[in-house]
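Fig. S4 source data, part A: sequence.
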Amino acid sequence: MTTSPPQPATAPAIRVHWPDAPAAPQDLVCPNCGAEGPKPRLLDVAWTAPKLPRGDRKPVLACPACTARFYPPLRVPNYGDPDVMDWGWHQFHIQHGAGLVAITRLLGRIARKPGTRCLEIGCGYGFGLDFARHAMGWTCLGIDPSPMARVGAADLGLDIVDGYFPDALPDAAPWDVIAATEVIEHVQRPAALLAELRARLAPDGILLLTTPDGAAIDRATPETDLAQLLAPGIHMVFQTEASLRRLLESAGFANVRVGREGFTLVAYAGATRGALAEDDAAQRPRFRAWLA
């Protein structure tokens, strides 16, 4: 029997307010690059949620130095709290792109042999890990504190550590592949996260990272897409192509490759030269075999 996802008691509502005239900048330190000074105010985001019935409203600011966009400091939610699920499973699927093809295609581009050690941070239910294990033949570990990860670990028989990176890692052994898809926007200090990732990547390892494209915070972006990108209360910092490249290079990653796919930035960093399979169509038989 199929069980329906839990539905929130009060549907979350997100509203975007563009200024009619240039708004006064705010004098804040950029959480992405540390630059001080005034930060232009792009727009305001108002929202309500089951545990926030009266709502809240925050500005989104832009850093002239690194081009990242960000909210003023917000409290990071406890993703291990069952109350996180009050937002409903549909919110999880919004965050993770829902489609299995999107989840597996980016991992499938990494041309590594069976036995490759793969760590996925913020793995959610674990579809990416399951694909890497069965279709790629990799040895996989996930780290995620959410109730969704606990469900996926049980359903799919995956090795998922209940906790946060890097504290939850069982040992300091390096990883050949580290994937952190739709993770970096959830942290207050992206540079600190990348430093931890770099320290745990093997010398010839590859990092896969995706995050919402901060350049899409624009009047031309459809409001439904913009609301998903902004995700107030859980998203903190929004990278642009330039800011993400700068951040990765500053963290010591070589061969940084950043591109846009829709409203998402996709980055590969590390030993990427000659290590990526560019023909996505060639991956389809492997994807179909995994589904079977």
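Fig. S4 source data, part B ends here. The CA atoms of residues 91 and 102 lie 17 Å apart.
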